[in-house]
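[Meeting: bench + compute handoff]

Bench side (C.D.) handed over the final construct sequence. Compute side (W.E.) agreed to return the predicted structure before the next meeting so the bench team could plan truncations. Sequence as handed over:
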Amino acid sequence: MKSPAEMNTIQIEVTNACPHWCSNCTRFCGHYKKPSFMNLEIFKKAVDSLVDFPGMVGFMGGEPTLHPQFRELVKYYSEKIPEKIKYPVFKQPVKSFSIYRNHNLGRMTGFKRGLWTSLGGGYYKNFEQIQDVFGFQCINDHQNNGLHQALLITRKELGISDDEWIKLRDNCWIQNMWSASITPKGAFFCEVAAAFDMLFDGPGGWPIEPGWWKRKPEDFGDQLQWCELCSAPLRVPRIEANRKTDVISPVMLKKLQAVASPKLKKQRYVVFNPATYQATQYTGNEGVSDWYLPDEGQTKRVSDTNRSLCPKEVAVYFHEKYAPITLSDDAAGILSIADFNSLAFNDWVLVVNDPETRPAELCRRLRDCVLNPGCLYYRSRSFFSYRISASQIARDSRFILFNRRAMALTGLCNIRLDKTLVEHWDKSKRIRLSIYPLLSQNSLFGKLLDVWQVYKEKLR
């Protein structure tokens, strides 16, 4: 076994709420009758306790972006956990967020901050802050057929002796290769032990205090009781995560019935028969964890069909009218008149200054792109100009595109469509679109433009 001090990551688990019920989830999402959310006071203690931890401090769930105080949590987290590595913040539009993630967000080494997420509505809502804070993002939308190992099979049901079990337990790939965790109930040497304690209303973990993570295996004590319920160290079945079905043993079936598991009520499980168990039938994880997606690679962690981060609505301003456009599969049509300053509207706004700009076509293209809601995008009339003032952007751009949720607009009740609008954004977040109507950052030209954008910022 390994001390948390030797791990490369320790997770702060802010919630076990999740939109997915993945097979054999290490957090047992889908089995909780009522999900929990870590309060701000406990979260601050958790962050403070890890300020001196040399590895990464992970921000995790469930789906962490579902936390109702996500912005406040991330703000405190970013203030207390400074990032050592400077990384390029997402700015230019992309066609494939999967490719962008693999090229820019998948490198874990050296980073202090990390977000574990499955994307979705919470991520879309907090997109700007997430890109500003997290240089590493472990993203998995769970639309793939990656394999999850069964965790809810007890070793005693399989007839594994105490001596054999201790050797297997101490060589558990999850505990040796992955992370300790902090939940609302305390600190734990292992993420699965932490999840068991939440699921079965255990006694809780160690006090959340500075230095708790320096404990050694001989100090794990009563927390080792949870290993008795866990089959991670064993050769047991695997199943596709997107089947949303757990493989459980008879003993674990009774325990889950006792806590009124919603996943059981929905029949999302199969019972494993210990009498037929033969370890040689299954692949183990001795020494190194099995690749999650061995045949398809990490690019499949985000599906090409995932559109959860694409614009939902665009309010087009032209001829002194605001027309909200819903981006549906059939058409982008003008539905009615609405004021984009209204609190009811909380998405993208397109200001058209050039009669040659075709907003309906542009909106259709927006449907397939991902943009940073924290940026103000504009299409300049000149290709080669790089130093453009706020007045020039407001007056001379063919169009301006921005999001009502941008942090630059926080607290504003009225917006004027002149240079004062543009001045709300920092210069680094005023992004020039060099190809009309949108640029795919995944193209070769897009990569060259990235270099040009970096050069521009150095000139400012």
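W.E. noted at the follow-up: The chain is about 25% helix and 15% strand. C.D. will use this when planning the next construct.
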